[in-house]
Design goal:
Layout lengths: L1 H4 L22 H10 L1 H14 L4 H11 L1 H14 L13 H38 L6 H8 L3 H13 L6 E4 L4 E4 L5 E5 L6 E5 L14
Antiparallel strand pairs: 1-2, 3-4
Helix pairs in contact: 2-3, 3-4, 3-6, 4-6, 5-6, 6-8, 7-8
């Protein structure tokens, strides 16, 4: 419950790749208009926008599901129109209009499935972010266990949070299997000038290299 409540206050940045020349965001409303005029192009734009904006995965997945309804409407409406005998084309076994409508319906189904997957991934990102920032859990093994991920998947998820700036001032220290977050972690990573090793120490620990024993 704690993780679910933490999802909405997160302020997401706008992906620069989806800003127009004036610097404002290209919203799904514009993509919806394009979807009405050219449904396949509109859905393709929605999918591209959603997959590139990793920090918006949950909301974009929901938007894809909503906007793809126009494909279902076009498909079903076309099936009703082209399905009557009056619209049969001589010498053709199947009316091309029916094929196009069936294609729209298949696109709708694919968009719905993709939207569900994106929403799940978005919730995963936000639950892992809540584990780190709210529950103060920074060990990669603990993050993997609490989120139901493998160790490698946990690393990939945390790195995505860092790359999208949802988790700021943080980096992954693989030797200690730890996420170092400024202001959260009570550990610091210090590189030894003598042997080059990086030691992860508590803030109040003596500054001694764990590899060579020299002062750092």
């Amino acid at each position: 419950m704690k993780q679910k409540e933490a999802r909405r206050p997160i302020k997401y940045p706008i992906d620069d790749r989806w800003k127009n020349k004036n610097g404002t965001e290209i919203h799904f409303g514009l993509i919806a208009l394009i979807s009405i005029l050219l449904p396949p192009l509109g859905v393709a734009m929605a999918v591209k926008k959603a997959t590139q904006e990793k920090s918006h995965y949950y909301d974009n997945g929901r938007q894809i599901q909503l906007r793809s309804i126009v494909l279902l409407v076009f498909g079903v409406f076309g099936m009703v129109i082209y399905g009557v005998p009056e619209h049969d084309i001589p010498d053709l076994p199947v009316n091309p209009g029916l094929v196009l409508c069936a294609f729209y319906i298949l696109l709708f189904a694919a968009a719905m499935i993709g939207g569900v997957r994106m929403k799940r991934k978005g919730l995963l990102y936000e639950s892992v972010l809540a584990l780190i920032t709210l529950d103060k859990i920074t060990g990669l093994d603990q993050i993997a266990k609490r989120s139901g991920l493998t160790y490698d998947a946990a690393i990939k998820t945390v790195q995505t949070l860092i790359d999208t700036h949802l988790l700021k001032d943080a980096y992954i220290h693989l030797p200690e299997r730890e996420v170092i977050v400024l202001g959260i972690s009570k550990k610091v990573a210090i590189r030894c000038k003598n042997c080059g090793g990086t030691s992860v120490l508590q803030e109040n620990d003596p500054r001694k290299c764990v590899y060579c024993g020299g002062k750092i």
